[in-house]
Amino acid sequence: MFDIPGDIRDLIQEDTYYIDDVGMSDSTAIVFSDMILKIQTISEEAENEFRVMEWLQGKLPVPKVLRFERDDRRAWLLMTKVPGEMACAEKYLKDPDLLTSILAEGIQMLWNVDINNCPYVRDLEKKLRIAEYKVENNLVDTENAEPDTFGRNGFKDPTHLLEWLYQNKPKEELVFSHGDFCLPNIFIANGKISGYIDLGRTGIADKWQDIALCYRSLLHNFAGKYTGKRYQGFSADMLFEKIGIMPDWDKIRYYILLDELF
């Protein structure tokens, strides 16, 4: 099995497990009967995740931290398993009206978190600083970018995109943001949001951050990008009507482009 610190190994004991490979994260998630162990390279996001998770107890449905350990290279986060299924489960993709209603409620739940005493800031200044580090250190995966982001009809390279992002910063409408509001990170049970996971980018940010990534994730999942199976019935209007907001397509494009550097 994986190299696991002794204190965490004592908690998981001989529980059966499987490896969860859903999603785009570069971490390893080991799923036990009622716990999940997330192993990832040490980073600011890894440190942020367990602290945000503890701060959110009683505010939003998120896992409970059971143990966090780190060394110079890796971080191990043992947490409770949230109930329900991922929002990308087939039963939800077959019912786009229900799915968009639940996701809209999930976005609004985030907005209802009081940010006055929130110590976790992930605004554009912070995001662009991280993006700049990734660009300068060749850490941007252009292979997984949208087809028209780079190349003949897009940006020359990540440096060119970063320059554009700095030059076109929109005015921010700050709320509490998940930061990576994609369908595999949202869990549903009994027709309601039952849990938010992958919280490393969570904190105070522009409200359009989550709207943009939710919209992109819906497009990809209904188009069958990850499974090859297409689903019918989704339109962008459904999501915005459920949220109760007019789409700001400039901001949506901006935050999708920004995410290409992460």
Written overview of the protein:
With 262 residues, the protein is of the alpha+beta class. The protein folds into two domains: 75 residues, 2-Layer Sandwich (Phosphorylase Kinase, domain 1); 175 residues, Aminoglycoside phosphotransferase (APH), C-terminal lobe (Aminoglycoside 3'-phosphotransferase, Chain: A, domain 2), CATH 3.90.1200. Helices cover 37% and strands 18% of the residues. The chain is built from nine helices and ten strands. The protein has a five-stranded antiparallel β-sheet, sandwiched between helices. Strands 6-8-9 form a three-stranded antiparallel β-sheet, covered by helices on one side. It has a two-stranded antiparallel ribbon with strand order 7-10. β8 and β9 form a beta hairpin. α4 crosses α8, α5 runs antiparallel to α6 and α7 packs across α9. The two termini are 29 Å apart. The model has no long low-confidence stretch (mean pLDDT 95).
Portion in strands: 15-25%
Overall tally of structural domains:
2
Helix content bin = 25-40%
CATH superfamily of the largest domain: Aminoglycoside phosphotransferase (APH), C-terminal lobe
- What is the overall silhouette? globular
Sketch the major β-sheet. 5 strands, antiparallel
Q: Structural class from helices and strands?
A: alpha+beta
Run of helices and strands? HEEEHEEEHHHHEEEEHHH
Q: Would you identify the CATH architecture of the largest domain?
A: Alpha-Beta Complex
Question: If you average the pLDDT, what whole number results?
Answer: 95
- Radius of gyration from the alpha-carbon trace, in angstroms: 18 Å
CATH topology of the largest domain: Aminoglycoside 3'-phosphotransferase, Chain: A, domain 2
Number of strands: 10
The span between the termini is 29 Å
**Unreliable residue runs:** none
* Order of strands across the main sheet: 1-2-3-5-4
Number of helices: 9
CATH class of the largest domain: Alpha Beta
